[in-house]
Amino acid sequence: MGTENHQSFYLIQHIPKTAGTTLRHIVDQQFGPKNVLTYYNQPSIQLLENIEAHLTIFPNYQAIIGHFKFGVHQKLSSASTYITFLRHPVARTISQYKEWTVNSPERLCGEDGKIQTLAESVDKNPDYYRDYQTSFLIGEATADMPAASISDIALQNLADYYDGIGLVEYFDQSM
To answer: What is the reported pTM?
Structure first.
């Protein structure tokens, strides 16, 4: 698969609003931008579904970075490891809300057509915010999973599959 120069293929999971832009610059410096696949704003999951074939054709890639959920490693036949950053959930939620007020205000419109406050948005659209980071750490979950199971799965995945877990609030130390 083209991983002969390093031990693992790196799955650098950028959970939105967790310092991913800064991390991307560091990853490009570490590996070289030509050696890093990016997965942002893709219209489909085709790249992730066919990542093994893609890496066979383009063996120089050493990592992928982007907005993808846990489970990509299952598409690879060789060793891989995840790296991600987490952020305090309240700070992440506030940052997400602020971004939407600028870039996607339609997501925040109430029945009266006005932009909802953060509290209104969280109350009216809890699925926009609930367990957001956790959902990236567990991959596909079912709606009927109890919260305790979701947390247990996330913690187990972090222990078993992630070699790098940083905290946005301690970015420099995490690096």
So the answer is: 0.87
